[in-house]
Inverse folding.
C-alpha cells in the first residue's frame, strides 16, 4: 500500500528558503513536512558565495534589497551565530573604477543607514597583505560570511526539534488539487523508488531554480530567470575579511573567506535548465582576469575547484533579453490563489541567502492568514545555538589544528564528541586538509544504511581541502565498512559517486598543481584501486 | 609575532603545491620512530595553509622535528617542508619561549668557547655521575648521553691565516664542532688543502645558526646568518671559495640562509659554498686534484649524515676516499643516526634518539669494519655512544694518506 501522510503545510525545496520556512512554521506550532529532491542545499543554497551581505553591494542599484539585507544581517548575526563569522568586509576602489559611483555609493549607504567607514590604506595593506597595492580607497562595511552547510543543518535540526518533518532525497512527482484548491503532493523516494502522498491544504513552492517545474505541475504560470553563476575556491583562506570591489556590481568582484578557503565569484548567465551546473573554463578565466584587479597574485594562487549554481530571479514581466544583473535581488511572494485562482499554493522565490529568514517570515505570515492563525513570527529573536565550544576537548588526543576546527564546529554536540573522542581511533584525523576526525564523520553517517560522501562532506567539511578527497574519501568509505556502517558494495558506489563529483569541480580549474592532484587522484583510484572499469560499467 | 617573521612566513608559498602524497611522511625518520610527532606534512605545509594570514595555531609537537631535511629530499613537488617546519618552530618558541636547556644547546658557539677554555675540567665534569644527575634533573639532559669532548687548544688558538697567493683560495667556514671539539678535523682540512697547493684563510664567523633553528630561535639564527653572509662575501668577492667540513654548516650556507635571510647577498654567497669533499671532487673533475695518495688497506663503513644528503650532491666523501688505493669504503645505508644535533641531548627525545640510532648501530656491527667515517660531528657523537668503532672525518683520512705519500716520496 502506498504510504500517506497528512500535515498542514507541505514545503517543497530544502534550500535555505524552504528550511527557513519549515523552522518558522514549526516555531509557530504549524505542522509541516519539507520535501527535498537531494540532500539539504542540493541546489543554490550550497552553490553560492556564502556572503552575509551588509547591503552595501546593492546600495546604489537596489536600495530596497540593500535595506532588507542590512536588517537581516543584524538579525542573523544575533540569531544564527553558529553559521556566521563576523569577518567584516572591505569595499575597495581600484584605478579605473568610477569616482562618481563611489560618491553615489557613500551617499546611498549613508541614507540607508548602513555604517561605512574609510580606513587608511596602510592599515588595509597590513591586514590584507594580498590586496592590490594599487588600491585608491578602502571602506569597511559590516559584511560577514555564512556557512550555508551548517546553516541548513542547524535550521533544519531546530525545525525537526520543534515537530516538523523532513524528507530528503524525495522528489515531487505531482501536485494534488481539488477543484480550485491544492490538497497535497505526490512524492517519490529517489533512492528506493517508493511513492508517497502528502496531504496538505497548503503547499509552498520554495524550489528555487526548479520552481517553474513545480508551477507547471500545478498548472499555474510562473516565470523565473535562472541566472547561473560560477564560483571558484582557492586552496587557502588568504583574506581575513570579505573583499568587494567598489563599483557597480559585476562579475568577479567578491572574495569571501570561508573556513580554510577563499571563495571568489561570480558570473551570471541565464540558463533554462535548473539542473545545469555546467562549468566553463573561459568564463572562469575572464572572471579571474577581473579579480586580478583586486588580488594581483590571483593567477599564481592554487585553485582547488569550481562550482556553479543558479539564482532564481523573479520578474513580473520577464523579458527574454534580461542579463540577470538588472533584475531585483528582492524576494517575490506569490499567492497563487489570488494570482491564478489555485488556492493553497504559494511560491516564494528570488531574494538572497542573507534574507532567507525574512522570506520565511513573510511566507509563513501568509500561511497563517490562510489558516486563520494569529501565531506570531519569533525568528527575529529565537536564536539557534552557537557552533563554538568553550570546552577544549582536553580529554582527547587531538592535534591542535583538529581541536581548533572542532572548537568552531562542534557546538551543541560538544558533549557527544567529548565522549566519542576518548576512543583514540575516533580522534584520528581522516581528512587532513580540513582536519576532520573519524568521530565527526561517524556522527554524520545516518543510521538508515545510506552512505553518501557528499552528505558527509556537507556536515563535516570532509574532502573540501586542496586534495579534494584524494585520500579521505577512500579512508571514509573503508572505515564505514570496517565499523559496520555500510556494506562493501554500498561503500564502493558511494566512493565512485564521491570521487566523480570531486573530479568534476577540479577538472575545470585543473592546471598546475590541481592538474597534478587530479592525476594523482585518478591514478590512486583507477590504477592502484582498480575503480576505473567498474565506473565505466556503471555509466553504460 | 614579529614583523620580520611574519614577512618571511608570508613569503614562503611553496606549501600550495603539496599534493598530500605522504612521501615526506614516509621518509621522516622521527615519524618512523614515534607517533608523537605530527609528521612533516602536517607540521609543515598543512599547518601553514591553515594559518597563512589567519589565526596562528601553535603545535607543541613541532619540537620533535629535527630539521634533518629528509622531507625536502623526498618531496616530488619541491615543497620547502623543512623551511615551513623551521617557521613552525619559531612560532612555537615565540609563543612559549625556550627553556634554559634549549637556550644552552642552541648556543653551540658560546658553549664551545667557554667549555674549551676550561676543557680538561669540562670534559671531566661531563663524565661525573653526580654532575650528570644534576644536569638531568635541572636541565633534562639525559645522564646516559655522551657529550663530545672540548679541546683547550681549539682551532682558533692554533690557526693563523697565511697568505701567499695560490690560484685557488679557500675561505674556511670551520663551524663550532671543528673549532672547539675537533680541531684535528680543521687541521686535517688545512693540510689537505695545502697538499693541493691551496691557501686557507679563516674568515670571521659565527655559529651557522642550525642549532638555533632547531630550537626555534629564528631571530638569533637570522642575526648570525646576516653576520656570516657579510663576512664571507668579503672573501668570495676576492675570488675565494667558501668550504665547510661540517655538513650542517654547509647546508645552512647553501640553503637555509636562502629562506631565513632570503636576500640577494644570501643567494650570491650560496653559489660559492662547497662541502670539503664536494670541493675536492670538483678539483678532481677539473684535473686539479693532487692524487698522490698513499695506499691504505682498510675496510671502512661510511655513515651519510642527513644534512649531507639534504645538500643533494651525491656522496662526495665516498667518491673522494675511493681514490685512496686499497681503501674499501662501504655505505652503511642506515638513514638518520638519531642524534640530530641538539635533539638527542634532550631527555624527552632520548628514547626516540636511541631507537633511531639502532639501525645504524646494527649496520656498523654487521659490517665490522676497521672504523667508521662520517662528516658530521653530531653523527659521530651518536656513533661513539652506540658503537665501539673509532669514528673519523674524511679529511683526517685524506690528510693521513697525503702525509704517508709524502713520507714515501722523501724516503
Amino acid at each position: 500500500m502506498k504510504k500517506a501522510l497528512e500535515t498542514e503545510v507541505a514545503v517543497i525545496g530544502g534550500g535555505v528558503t524552504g528550511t527557513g520556512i519549515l523552522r518558522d512554521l514549526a516555531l509557530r506550532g504549524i505542522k509541516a513536512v519539507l520535501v527535498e529532491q537531494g540532500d539539504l542545499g542540493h541546489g543554490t543554497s550550497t552553490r553560492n558565495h556564502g556572503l552575509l551581505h551588509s547591503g552595501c553591494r546593492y546600495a546604489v542599484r537596489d536600495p530596497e534589497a540593500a535595506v532588507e539585507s542590512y536588517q537581516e544581517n543584524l538579525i542573523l548575526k544575533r540569531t544564527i551565530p553558529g553559521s556566521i563569522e563576523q569577518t567584516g568586509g572591505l569595499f575597495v576602489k581600484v584605478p579605473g573604477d568610477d569616482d562618481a559611483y563611489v560618491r553615489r555609493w557613500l551617499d546611498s549607504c549613508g541614507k540607508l543607514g548602513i555604517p561605512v567607514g574609510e580606513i587608511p590604506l596602510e592599515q588595509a595593506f597590513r591586514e590584507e597583505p594580498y590586496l592590490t597595492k594599487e588600491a585608491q580607497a578602502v571602506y569597511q562595511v559590516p559584511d560577514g560570511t555564512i556557512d550555508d552547510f551548517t546553516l541548513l543543518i542547524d535550521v533544519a535540526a531546530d525545525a525537526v526539534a520543534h515537530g516538523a518533518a523532513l524528507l530528503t532525497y524525495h522528489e515531487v512527482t505531482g501536485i494534488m488539487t481539488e477543484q480550485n484548491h491544492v490538497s497535497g503532493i505526490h512524492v517519490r523516494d529517489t533512492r528506493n523508488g517508493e511513492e508517497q502522498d502528502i496531504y496538505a491544504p497548503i503547499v509552498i513552492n520554495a524550489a528555487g531554480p526548479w520552481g517553474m517545474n513545480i508551477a507547471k505541475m500545478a498548472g499555474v504560470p510562473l516565470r523565473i530567470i535562472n541566472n547561473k553563476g560560477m564560483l571558484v575556491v582557492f586552496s587557502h583562506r588568504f583574506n581575513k575579511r570579505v573583499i568587494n570591489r567598489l563599483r557597480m556590481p559585476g562579475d568577479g568582484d567578491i572574495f569571501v573567506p570561508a573556513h580554510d578557503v577563499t571563495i571568489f565569484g561570480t558570473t551570471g548567465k541565464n540558463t533554462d535548465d535548473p539542473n545545469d551546473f555546467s562549468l566553463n573554463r573561459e568564463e572562469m578565466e575572464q572572471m579571474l582576469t577581473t579579480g586580478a584587479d583586486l588580488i594581483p597574485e590571483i593567477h599564481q594562487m592554487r585553485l582547488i575547484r569550481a562550482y556553479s549554481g543558479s539564482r532564481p530571479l523573479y520578474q513580473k514581466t520577464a523579458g527574454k533579453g534580461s542579463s540577470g544583473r538588472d533584475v531585483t535581488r528582492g524576494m517575490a511572494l506569490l499567492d497563487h490563489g489570488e494570482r491564478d485562482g489555485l488556492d493553497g499554493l504559494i511560491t516564494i522565490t528570488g531574494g538572497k541567502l542573507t534574507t532567507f529568514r525574512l522570506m520565511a517570515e513573510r511566507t509563513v505570515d501568509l500561511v497563517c492568514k490562510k489558516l486563520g492563525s494569529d501565531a506570531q513570527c519569533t525568528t527575529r529573536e529565537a536564536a539557534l545555538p552557537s557552533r563554538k565550544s568553550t570546552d577544549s576537548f582536553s580529554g582527547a588526543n587531538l592535534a591542535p589544528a583538529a581541536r581548533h576546527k572542532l572548537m568552531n564546529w562542534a557546538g551543541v554536540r560538544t558533549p557527544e564528541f567529548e565522549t566519542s573522542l576518548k576512543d583514540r581511533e575516533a580522534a584520528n584525523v581522516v581528512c587532513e586538509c580540513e582536519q576532520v576526525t573519524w568521530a565527526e564523520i561517524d556522527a554524520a553517517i545516518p543510521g538508515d544504511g545510506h552512505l553518501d560522501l557528499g552528505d558527509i562532506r556537507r556536515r563535516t567539511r570532509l574532502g573540501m581541502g586542496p586534495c579534494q578527497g584524494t585520500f579521505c574519501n577512500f579512508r571514509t568509505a573503508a572505515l564505514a565498512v570496517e565499523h559496520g556502517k555500510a556494506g562493501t558494495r554500498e561503500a564502493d558506489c558511494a566512493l565512485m559517486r564521491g570521487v566523480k563529483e570531486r573530479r568534476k569541480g577540479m577538472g575545470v580549474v585543473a592546471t598546475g598543481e590541481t592538474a597534478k592532484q587530479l592525476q594523482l587522484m585518478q591514478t590512486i583510484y583507477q590504477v592502484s584501486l582498480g575503480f576505473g572499469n567498474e565506473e565505466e560499467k556503471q555509466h553504460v | 609575532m614579529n614583523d620580520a617573521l611574519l614577512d618571511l612566513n608570508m613569503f614562503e608559498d611553496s606549501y600550495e603545491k603539496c599534493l598530500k602524497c605522504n612521501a615526506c611522511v614516509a621518509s621522516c625518520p622521527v615519524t618512523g620512530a614515534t607517533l608523537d610527532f605530527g609528521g612533516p606534512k602536517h607540521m609543515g605545509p598543512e599547518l601553514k595553509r591553515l594559518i597563512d594570514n589567519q589565526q596562528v595555531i601553535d603545535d607543541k609537537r613541532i619540537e620533535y622535528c629535527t630539521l634533518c631535511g629528509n622531507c625536502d629530499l623526498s618531496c616530488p613537488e619541491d615543497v620547502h617542508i623543512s623551511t615551513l617546519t623551521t617557521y613552525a618552530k619559531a612560532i612555537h618558541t615565540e609563543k612559549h619561549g625556550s627553556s634554559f636547556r634549549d637556550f644552552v644547546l642552541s648556543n653551540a658557539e658560546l658553549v664551545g668557547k667557554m667549555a674549551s677554555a676550561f676543557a680538561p675540567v669540562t670534559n671531566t665534569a661531563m663524565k661525573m655521575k653526580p654532575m650528570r644527575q644534576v644536569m638531568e634533573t635541572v636541565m633534562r639532559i639525559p645522564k646516559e648521553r655522551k657529550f663530545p669532548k672540548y679541546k683547550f687548544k681549539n682551532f682558533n688558538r692554533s690557526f693563523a691565516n697565511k697568505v701567499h697567493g695560490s690560484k685557488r683560495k679557500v675561505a674556511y667556514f670551520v663551524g663550532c664542532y671543528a673549532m672547539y671539539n675537533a680541531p684535528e678535523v680543521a687541521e686535517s682540512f688545512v693540510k689537505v688543502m695545502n697538499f693541493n697547493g691551496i691557501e686557507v684563510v679563516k674568515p670571521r664567523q659565527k655559529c651557522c645558526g642550525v642549532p638555533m633553528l632547531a630550537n626555534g630561535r629564528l631571530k638569533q639564527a637570522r642575526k648570525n646568518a646576516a653576520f656570516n653572509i657579510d663576512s664571507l662575501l668579503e672573501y668570495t668577492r676576492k675570488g675565494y671559495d667558501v668550504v665547510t667540513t661540517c655538513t650542517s654548516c654547509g647546508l645552512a650556507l647553501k640553503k637555509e640562509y636562502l629562506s631565513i635571510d632570503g636576500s640577494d647577498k644570501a643567494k650570491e654567497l650560496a653559489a660559492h659554498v662547497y662541502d670539503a669533499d664536494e670541493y675536492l671532487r670538483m678539483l678532481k673533475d677539473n684535473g686539479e686534484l693532487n692524487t698522490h695518495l698513499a695506499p691504505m688497506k682498510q675496510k671502512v663503513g661510511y655513515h651519510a649524515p642527513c644534512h649531507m644528503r639534504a645538500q643533494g650532491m651525491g656522496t662526495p666523501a665516498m667518491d673522494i676516499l675511493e681514490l685512496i688505493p686499497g681503501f674499501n669504503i662501504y655505505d652503511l645505508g642506515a638513514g638518520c643516526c638519531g642524534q640530530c644535533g641538539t635533539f638527542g641531548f634532550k631527555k624527552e627525545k632520548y628514547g626516540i634518539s636511541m631507537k633511531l640510532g639502532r639501525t645504524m648501530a646494527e649496520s656498523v656491527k654487521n659490517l665490522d669494519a676497521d672504523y667508521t667515517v662520517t662528516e658530521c660531528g653530531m653523527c659521530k657523537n651518536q656513533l661513539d655512544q652506540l658503537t665501539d668503532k673509532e669514528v673519523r672525518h674524511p679529511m683526517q683520512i685524506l690528510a693521513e694518506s697525503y702525509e704517508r705519500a709524502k713520507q714515501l716520496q722523501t724516503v
Notes: Residues 85-145+226-308 of chain A form a domain with the D-Amino Acid Oxidase; Chain A, domain 2 fold (CATH 3.30.9.10). Chain A touches chain B at residues 128-130, 235-240, 260, 300-302, 399-401, 404, 432-433, 435, 465-467, 470-471, 513, 516-517, 520 (CB under 8 Å).
